[in-house]
Amino acid sequence: MSRPIKLFARPVTYLAALLTLAAASLAQQVSIQLPADHATSQLTPGPGEELARSRCVLCHSLDYIVGQPRLSAAQWEGEVRKMATTYGAPLSEPDIRAISDYLARNYGAPVAAAPNRPPAPAPAR
Ligand code: HEC
């Protein structure tokens, strides 16, 4: 007569092993060290910098700003509006204006001397 195979000979032992494993994996701390901000993603200090940083870094690096070719004020405003309308950046109208001004002031293209256009104000540093 054959004996039934006792698969779980000592359930308490299995349970203890399982709990030990679970505890070990819980105790394992996961910590990550992010690299320091890239030098090129430091925004130029000035009025609007904090606002721009806090709003624009939500989705991507500030390299996207710093690495752009110099844009005109209208182009910067277009960029900021595109972030809001196309990509859903949470920006209020005053935010859009303040950030566009900051970007044009610090990352703006020198305005070409065109007829009927007053000279561009010197960038505030
Ligand atoms: C809701 C997410 C989001 C926020 C917030 C955001 N962006 Fe973007 N941005 C994007 C996406 C998506 C792209 C396109 C990425 C790509 O093509 O690789 C992009 C691309 C850009 C580019 C590259 C040129 C272009 O038009 O693709 C610039 C410049 C830029 N963003 C500026 C800004 C500025 C300035 C702010 C803050 C006002 C901002 N972004 C905030 C999502 C965002």
Describe this structure in words.
By secondary structure, the protein is mainly α. The chain has a domain at 40-107: Orthogonal Bundle (Cytochrome Bc1 Complex, Chain D, domain 2), CATH 1.10.760.10. It is built from 5 helices and no strands. Helix 4 runs antiparallel to helix 5. The model has no long low-confidence stretch (mean pLDDT 85). Residues 55-56, 58-60, 64-65, 68, 79-80, 82-83, 87-89, 91, 99 line the site of heme C.
List low-pLDDT spans.
none
CATH third-tier fold name of the domain at 40-107:
Cytochrome Bc1 Complex, Chain D, domain 2
Largest sheet: none
Structural class: mainly alpha
Mean pLDDT figure: 85
Instruction: Determine the number of helices (DSSP H or I, runs of at least 4 residues).
Output: 5
In whole angstroms, how far apart are the ends? 95 Å
What bound compounds does this protein have? Answer: heme C
Label the CATH architecture of the domain at 40-107: Orthogonal Bundle
Features:
binds heme C, mainly alpha, single chain, rod-shaped, Cytochrome Bc1 Complex, Chain D, domain 2, 125 residues
How is the topology of this model organized?
Blueprint: H1 11-27, H2 49-56, H3 63-66, H4 73-85, H5 93-107
Helix pairs in contact: 4-5
Bound molecules: heme C (HEC).
Heme C binds next to α2, α3 and α4.
